[in-house]
Amino acid sequence: GRNILFLTLAAIYAYQVKAEAVITGVCETDFSGYPDCRDEFVKALNHAVSLGMAKDIRFETPLMWIDKAETWALADYYGKLDLVRNETLTCYNGIKGDGCGHCAACNLRANGLNHYLADKPTVMAAMKQKTGLR
C-alpha cells in the first residue's frame, strides 16, 4: 500500500506548486501482490484526492499497460537504459539500481530486464505497438 502514501504526498506537493499532474510509474503487471499498482486503484485514489483538495490534480500513468520488459525497452528507445538501470529506485530495501536482488520488487525488475535483454527486437516491437512509438 505504499503508493497510497506516495501518491497522496505527491498530490499535496503538486497542489502547493500549482502543478496539474502527478506522473507515476506504476503498471498493471505489478498487480501480482501489489493492488496499489492497479489502474482501478489509481483512478479511485485520484478521485478521492481531487475531492479532498477541491482541485483537479491528475494522476498520469504512462507505464500502466506495458510490462517490465517493455518498460526497459522504452528506456532504451530514449537512450536512457543505463540511467534507469543505475539511478532509479525499485527496491523495497531502498537500494538504488539493481537493488537488493531478493525482494519481490527487485525480482520483477530483474526478470523484466533479463527478458528484454534476451529478446530486444521482439520486446521493442511490442512496446512500440502498445505506446504508438515508431
Automatic annotation (TrEMBL):
<dbReference type="GO" id="GO:0005524">
    <property type="term" value="F:ATP binding"/>
</dbReference>
<dbReference type="GO" id="GO:0046872">
    <property type="term" value="F:metal ion binding"/>
</dbReference>
<dbReference type="InterPro" id="IPR014729">
    <property type="entry name" value="Rossmann-like_a/b/a_fold"/>
</dbReference>
<dbReference type="GO" id="GO:0016874">
    <property type="term" value="F:ligase activity"/>
</dbReference>
<dbReference type="GO" id="GO:0008616">
    <property type="term" value="P:tRNA queuosine(34) biosynthetic process"/>
</dbReference>
<comment type="similarity">
    <text>Belongs to the QueC family.</text>
</comment>
<keyword id="KW-0862">Zinc</keyword>
<keyword id="KW-0671">Queuosine biosynthesis</keyword>
<keyword id="KW-0067">ATP-binding</keyword>
<dbReference type="InterPro" id="IPR018317">
    <property type="entry name" value="QueC"/>
</dbReference>
<protein>
    <recommendedName>
        <fullName>7-cyano-7-deazaguanine synthase</fullName>
        <ecNumber>6.3.4.20</ecNumber>
    </recommendedName>
</protein>
<dbReference type="Pfam" id="PF06508">
    <property type="entry name" value="QueC"/>
</dbReference>
<keyword id="KW-0547">Nucleotide-binding</keyword>
<comment type="pathway">
    <text>Purine metabolism; 7-cyano-7-deazaguanine biosynthesis.</text>
</comment>
<keyword id="KW-0436">Ligase</keyword>
<keyword id="KW-0479">Metal-binding</keyword>
